[in-house]
Design a protein that fits this description.
Elements (H helix, E strand, L loop, with lengths): L6 H7 L3 H13 L13 E4 L5 E4 L5 E3 L13 H13 L5 H8 L3 H12 L13 E9 L24 E8 L6 E6 L4 H11 L5 E4 L13 E4 L15 H17 L8 H13 L5 H9 L6 H5 L3
Parallel strand pairs: 4-7, 7-8
Antiparallel strand pairs: 1-2, 2-3, 4-5, 5-6
Protein name: ISXO2-like transposase domain-containing protein
InterPro entries: IS1016-like_transposase, Tnp_ISXO2-like, Transposase_Zn_ribbon
Pfam families: DDE_Tnp_IS1595 (PF12762), Zn_ribbon_IS1595 (PF12760)
């Protein structure tokens, strides 16, 4: 398949549960099923209403769902595929809306969405292009919008006392990729090691005047603009690209979700980054391929560190 450009096309192709199971099996193993327990290829298909397999290496039976985001789920794969398409192709969908669309409980929809977001993890490899923009932003309520007795002292500027700090790195040019991560603090000791792990040395980096960025001069060509003086573009130095991504990120999150906890924020960031970095038609199959290697249990999801 070349991908699904619409929900109608998806539903037209996945007309039955059996078609969904066969598509998932081919995505996972190709023509030769493999045991998820012992990796043996001595596997045969069993007869029955649901497609199951038997391994003649470890003698265990299994379905194509074992070890994936669909593991132990009682929901039909057809509903899962609809959820993946809606989550990956839209600007964002809440658990309440998904529950209405699939006729399931809000709790099941919430768990389903987080398991899908688990496939949106970002690559840890360095960015390929040699010109990148770097910036940081805060996500959360503004102090000026709070009642006087609700305001937090010394919470101005880049403070993360009541807001979440996010660091972003974006490439310039065609087919640009973005990397964004929730960080506990926005000081130099926190953000500089992250930048060095994602940006190749000798690259040109563009930032604002934030003091910790000066440390980048040791390994990079560093160009910056001084926003506090009203200077936003100096020759090729600007951060307009990453600022545009911040605008999209916040609109997607604020306009879709009632509230987001810091504990789950990275998953929501990963969702927006995934949509920015991947072509819409290819997203469904990309998620499905990643889903083969991801498993998230409910207790693991709600267990705060």
């Amino acid at each position: 398949m070349e991908g699904f450009s619409s929900l109608y096309q998806l539903l037209d192709y996945f007309s039955t549960e059996n078609v969904c199971e066969e598509y998932l099996a081919f995505t996972r193993w190709g023509e030769n099923p493999e045991c998820p327990y012992c990796n043996s290829k001595r596997v045969n298909s069993l007869k029955g209403k649901t497609k199951r397999y038997k391994c003649y290496g470890c003698r265990k039976q299994f379905s194509v769902r074992v070890g994936t985001i669909f593991h132990n789920s009682k929901l039909p794969l057809r509903k899962w595929f609809i959820a993946i398409h809606l989550c990956a192709s839209s600007k964002g969908i809440s658990s309440h809306q998904l529950a209405r669309e699939l006729n399931i409980s809000q709790e099941s929809a919430w768990f389903m969405l987080h398991r899908i977001r688990e496939t949106f993890t970002q690559s840890e490899r360095k960015l390929k292009k040699r010109k990148v923009e770097i910036d940081e932003t805060l996500f959360g309520g503004l102090e000026k919008n709070k009642h006087k007795d609700k305001k937090t002292p010394n919470n101005q500027g880049r403070s993360t006392k009541t807001k979440a700090g996010i660091l972003g790195i974006i490439e310039r040019g065609e087919n640009k990729q973005v990397y964004a991560i929730h960080v506990p603090r926005l000081d130099g000791n926190t953000i500089i090691p992250i930048i060095e792990s994602k940006v190749a040395k000798t690259s040109t980096v563009y930032t604002d005047e934030y003091r910790p960025y000066r440390r980048l001069r040791a390994n990079y060509t560093h160009k910056f603009v001084n926003h506090s003086q009203g200077k936003y573009v100096i020759a090729d130095a600007h951060t307009n690209t990453i600022e545009g991504f911040w605008s999209m990120l916040k609109k997607n999150l604020v306009n879709t979700y009632h509230s987001i906890s810091k504990y789950h924020l990275q998953r929501y960031i990963n969702e927006v980054v995934f949509k920015y970095n991947n072509n819409q038609i290819e997203r469904f199959d990309t998620v499905l391929k990643k889903a083969m290697h991801v498993r998230l249990e409910y207790q693991q999801l709600i267990m705060k560190k």
